[in-house]
Amino acid sequence: xxxxxxxxxxxxxxxxxxxxxxxxxxxxxxxxxxxxxxxxxxxxxxxxxxxxxxxxxxxxxxxxxxxxxxxxxxxxxxxxxxxxxxxxxxxxxxxxxxxxxxxxxxxxxxxxxxxxxxxxxxxxxxxxxxxxxxxxxxxxxxxxxxxxxxxxxxxxxxxxxxxxxxxxxxxx
Length: 172
Description:
It is a single chain. This protein is an alpha+beta fold. It contains 8 helices and 8 strands, in the order αββββββαββαααααα. The strands form 2 sheets. Strands 1-8-3-6 form a 4-stranded antiparallel β-sheet. Strands 2-7-4-5 form a 4-stranded antiparallel β-sheet. The radius of gyration is 17 Å and the shape is globular.
């Protein structure tokens, strides 16, 4: 009941910005319906996908939220979405009311699951295989250009990877 009193319902339109570059993150969100993405701008018309979020997931800009410093990224609705929002003040209030709410931290850690190893040691095929096996709904909800950016590969590389993945899947 405490949680229900503190959480706010939000409907957001496609492309509506939830957090702008330079703003301090003051809330965490849960997606009831829709898709959300985090990105930063490389140039005026090119962006770099940091993370993708789908229904039944928590999301936040972890670095900005925890340190209460300006965000380097933008969070925006990729599609029309229905969200639950919990402010930092509400989180502190809930924790003050019951230590059970300290468990929220574990949920929020999952919300920061930006797979950092994407940026490091995995091959493009391994990255795609990880998404296919662990978050297949991303492949259904986002266009390939967005998936490629998220995986830090070009759309052309993604096309080759998908072809190779399909061959390996059917030959093994």
